[in-house]
Design brief:
Layout (H helix, E strand, L loop, with lengths): L22 H8 L2 H12 L6 E3 L19 E5 L4 E7 L6 H16 L12 E7 L10 E3 L3 E3 L7 E3 L4 E7 L9 H12 L9 H14 L5 H41 L4 H8 L3 H12 L1
Parallel strand pairs: 3-4, 4-8
Antiparallel strand pairs: 1-2, 2-3, 5-8, 6-7
Helix pairs in contact: 1-5, 2-5, 4-5, 6-7
């Protein structure tokens, strides 16, 4: 039995010290209507009268076997435009593919049965990143689609399908955004409450962060979420250990079969391979 020994113990940050970049804090703060409107208006340069949260932490899984996704902040404005704002703390591969999957899930949920495709609502997927995913130093990256000729100089026509994608980079070097967004990214990166921020957006964000930090009613949901994430971390570690053990056994069985000209069964018997693992690696050998 693989026990917890060896699993890296991760420090749990107290709610009273939680930064905006933490998933729990980000969700609590960015679900405040006034803050979300200020954020979207500064980023997109458009006026928003009011917003409506479609459902907190909306689940867009289609069925049991699909890759279910949990949206941090999922809302729509008075025109029905849908917005999904996500915090990305850790750099990883294929964020573009994740955006594509998010977008398709949102489209399927917003297009009612019997409604024509032309009635699809405009949508925005916004990733707020604690890293520079594209490594060009920009504060904001916006996806744009174009129809191109056979040669680059032939023609370039912007392709509009109503879907928009933005990646924000808190480690920016080039401030290609509204001052309020740059201050927002600075605060996200530094968690500096001593700095004087001029934008109404960050002033409200700072106040909201302090409110959450001192809200005793948030302690239980925060710890519940943290414990669930820790359980997932431990489960992932154990799966990784088991997978490593199986790979080692597979290599050893192969060596004995090749060098000693033994059968699969004899090699497993000599190595005392457990029956459950023996069955799994036998299936691998048959592929």
């Amino acid at each position: 039995m693989i026990r917890g020994k060896g699993i890296e113990e991760r420090k749990i940050i107290p709610l009273s010290e939680l930064p905006l970049a933490d998933d729990f804090m980000f969700g609590e703060v960015m679900r405040r209507e006034d803050i979300c409107i200020l954020f979207l208006e500064a980023l997109l340069g458009k006026q928003i009268d009011h917003i409506e949260y479609i459902e907190r932490q909306q689940d867009l899984s289609d069925d049991y076997e699909s890759h279910g996704i949990r949206l941090d902040v999922y809302l729509k404005d008075e025109k029905g435009t849908v917005y999904n704002i996500e915090m990305q703390r850790f750099s990883g591969d294929n964020l573009e593919m994740r955006v594509r999957y998010y977008q398709s899930g949102i489209d399927r949920r917003t297009l009612e049965k019997g409604v024509h495709y032309a009635d699809l609502k405009e949508s925005y997927v916004i990733f707020v990143c604690a890293f520079d995913y594209f490594e060009h130093g920009l504060a904001v990256y916006e996806r744009k689609s174009f129809m191109m000729g056979a040669k680059e100089d032939d023609y370039s026509i912007e392709y509009e399908d109503g879907s928009h994608v933005f990646f924000l980079n808190s480690k920016y070097k080039t401030g290609n955004a509204d001052r309020a967004i740059l201050e927002y990214l600075d605060y996200l990166r530094t968690d500096d409450n001593t700095r004087q921020y001029n934008s109404k957006l960050v002033q409200r964000v700072k106040e909201a962060v302090e409110d959450v930090r001192h809200d005793k009613s948030k302690e239980e949901p925060y710890m519940t979420m943290t414990m669930k994430l820790e359980d997932m971390h431990r489960a992932g570690y154990r799966e990784g250990v088991l997978e490593g053990i199986e790979q080692t056994i597979i290599q050893n069985v192969k060596q004995l079969m090749e060098k000693e000209n033994w059968s699969f069964t004899k090699a497993c018997d000599v190595l005392a391979v457990p029956n459950d693992i023996r069955t799994k690696i036998y299936e691998i050998f048959q592929k």
